[in-house]
Task: structure prediction
Amino acid sequence: MKDLKELTLEELKEELIAMGEKPFRAAQIYSWMHEKLATDPDEMTNLSVALRERLKTEYAYTVLKTAEVQTSRIDGTKKYLFELPDGNYVESVRMEYHHGTSVCVSSQVGCRMGCRFCASTLGGLVRSLTAAEILEQIYCIERDNNERISSVVIMGIGEPMDNYDEVVRFVRMITDEKGVNLSGRNITISSCGLVPMIKKLAEEGLKVTLALSLHAVTDEKRKEIMPVANKYSIAELMDAVDYFFDKTGRRVTFEYALIAGVNDTDRDVNGLAGLAGPRKCHVNLIPVNPVTERGLKEPDRTSVLNFKNKLEKKGINATIRRELGRDIDGACGQLRRRHSDPAV
Ligand code: SF4
Result:
């Protein structure tokens, strides 16, 4: 059964024509779904009861259930655990910034990339999300807070480039001027470095930001913490980063999770500056969230600041990711894990 929320306006028009309905109905339905955030075709009061009934019986209509919300007492960050129609769970996070509200969404249930510092991958990949399920994470948060969000980061559970088609469909839908009309510039897609997919993304004509999870500056070190490095070398990654910039004019951001004693030495500073400097890439430092199972430690605050200062002295534009919601289940994937296994 096709999902109404998964269809672009053009595809929806074709469906309505095939149903023997007037094509303008598509714009009405589209607006109910993406502007008015209807949770049920029954809310679409400018459609006939008969058409609403047909929509309900002939199509799926993805809506997520909120299973849990945690609110940080420190900064108001809200972490949501959503139940998908098939009973699986994903997490999303709503963060407040001075320029508006940002939502971090998941793109898969679990992940098969195996990064050592990440809780989301401990149970492997269960399945990828549909574009409708990614959209709905945002819509649920918008309904809950009575707002429209201003930016999206696809950096929650999952590797977005391992769910390429649905992630690109999601971006096309959320940037559609007849729907949410979010600017591509306000969308960030993260990737642990699936080189062919990054090159493909560069050719889609989307003005999104790519955040590359680099986390180490030598192939050897990267292989220790990210299995994907066995497949693609840092040289290949940098080639993909350059290709992305050539095609889109958008500079890639390097994400760098600082792990005490693993990737926080002066050598690492030099290596990182060598990769980011010539490309004028911004570096986002993330003090790693401790994952109990993996015994990885977060560097102390002074080491993090020192690392940043040394990078800046080398002319690199670096920030430390604001540590939002440290008093709630901060590390991505932990809320879902705790929900499925209370011992965690
Ligand atoms: S960091 Fe991202 S790519 Fe790596 S295992 Fe976690 S979710 Fe997957």
